[in-house]
Specification:
Blueprint: H1 4-8, H2 33-43, E1 55-59, H3 65-78, E2 85-89, H4 96-107, H5 118-130, E3 140-146, H6 154-164, E4 172-179, H7 190-196, E5 199-203, H8 208-222, H9 230-243, H10 247-264, H11 271-291, H12 295-309, E6 328-329, H13 330-343, H14 351-363, E7 367-371, E8 381-385, H15 389-406
Parallel strand pairs: 1-4, 1-5, 2-3, 3-4
Antiparallel strand pairs: 6-8, 7-8
Length: about 425
């Protein structure tokens, strides 16, 4: 019979699995030197008792945005004896109230209680910021809002944080927003946009050479020497670069490949283990991506999967040869999306937002689209699921059912 002592003494390719986690922040971040410098320039004024800039950071998942900001802020804290920054995961704190509560209780212990209204957090923060530190320096609070696009009432949050500076006689509050949606500001009200006065940084995806160096760095820290073939590192980097340029994906490939090697008791990671890992990781990632989609994007994807599962009914145009591998017409998908919205008691978004959702889903690889040829209902788009539609539909319906069971009141302003 196995016990913990036996399990903990089993041979393994791993030295430290944590090194392969997306939350691990290494001492050196390859190929992000320029981005680090720009972030430092944005927050450095706080160390000279001046107001830092608002900063917005864009880039696809796995391009090192969060990791880079955390590394810079760790260095920032070494330069000051007073706490001046707070990190907020907006997937968890996804409303103005929750964000303001998180900021408030970070600096003011009495706010770590339930029952306070948002105006109370606001007034207490104003009072706190205006009282200088013991050494006479002003308080220069920096709020890091990771996945800022997940905040439901984003307009109100941005306006609240930026306008706080107009009501204080000393000190300041600034924000660093992190998002993988370059277009997220389009949902903001013009007054919120005008309040930002932000600087922007775009993190480009890693190429295969860059990913290989990142993986080689983690292999030295996370695996027993000699257990990972160079060809396996090259393959994992090439796969990730071809798919998305996502370092997280590449790290997951190596982590799963190591687990497969341990299960086989081969204790060696080769191309074969990486290929096996790819199949497993792809299925896992699809589920994770779908479950975290905004609700209306989920509803569009449900519509696509529904139609594709019944595609014979939607080939009634009599031009199957032009449908390019049974892709769906964009207009028919929008009609189905509107029906799905009514079923889940949501108000359908406009055609403009629908097109934006298609772009987001295609960027994530969940669908593929092509422009139609002339003569078939004018210019339209053909749509096809990026993965097995029945598998995606099952995940989507489970996600919708979970959402409905968690709350009876549907807040319909998420995008």
């Amino acid at each position: 019979m196995q016990n913990f002592d036996t399990i903990l003494t089993l041979p393994s390719v791993f030295l430290d699995r944590n090194v392969l986690s997306p939350h691990f922040v290494p001492d050196v971040l390859p190929y992000r030197e320029k981005e680090i410098e720009k972030i430092m320039l944005a927050v450095a004024p706080a160390l000279e008792d001046q107001r830092p800039k608002n900063l917005f950071i864009y880039g696809k998942t796995g391009t090192g945005k969060t990791c880079t900001v955390k590394r810079v802020m760790a260095e920032f804290r070494k330069k000051t004896i007073f706490p001046q920054d707070v990190y907020v995961n907006c997937r968890m704190y996804n409303s103005r109230y929750r964000v303001m509560q998180k900021i408030g209780k970070t600096f003011i212990s009495e706010l770590d209680k339930v029952g306070f209204g948002i105006s109370h957090f606001y007034e207490k923060l104003l009072e706190y910021i205006q009282v200088p530190y013991e050494n006479g320096n002003q308080k220069r609070i920096i709020v890091v809002l990771d996945e800022i696009d997940m905040v439901k009432d984003l307009d109100e949050l941005v306006y609240t944080l930026t306008r706080m500076n107009d009501e204080i006689s000393s000190g300041s509050i600034s924000m660093i927003g992190i998002t993988n949606k370059i277009s997220f500001k389009e949902v903001l009200d013009p007054r919120s946009k005008s309040s930002l006065c932000e600087s922007e940084i775009v993190f480009s995806p890693y190429n295969s050479i860059q990913l290989r160096e990142i993986l080689a760095q983690r292999v030295k820290l996370g695996f027993v020497e000699g257990t990972v073939h160079d060809s396996a590192i090259n393959l994992a980097a090439a796969i990730a670069a071809q798919e998305t340029g996502d370092a997280r994906y590449a790290l997951k490939l190596l982590l799963k490949a190591g687990e497969i090697a341990d299960e086989k008791k081969s204790f060696l990671i080769t191309d074969r283990e990486v290929e096996e890992a790819r199949k497993n990781v792809d299925n896992t990632l699809v589920g994770e991506i779908i479950k975290t989609l905004p609700k209306h994007q989920q509803l569009v994807l449900i519509a696509i999967c529904n139609l594709y599962n019944n595609i014979g009914h939607y080939q009634r145009l009599g031009q199957e040869e032009n449908l390019e591998e049974n892709r769906l017409l964009s207009g028919e998908v929008y009609e189905e999306y509107c029906k799905i919205c009514r079923k889940f008691k949501r108000i359908p978004r406009s055609a403009r937002w629908y097109r934006e959702y298609l772009n987001e889903l295609e960027m994530l690889g969940l669908i593929t689209t092509v422009e139609s040829s002339k003569g078939l209902r004018g210019h339209s788009r053909f749509i096809k699921p990026g993965y097995e539609p029945q598998q995606m539909l099952q995940i989507l319906l489970e996600s919708q059912q979970k959402s409905e069971s968690e709350t009876k009141v549907i807040y319909d302003s998420d995008l």
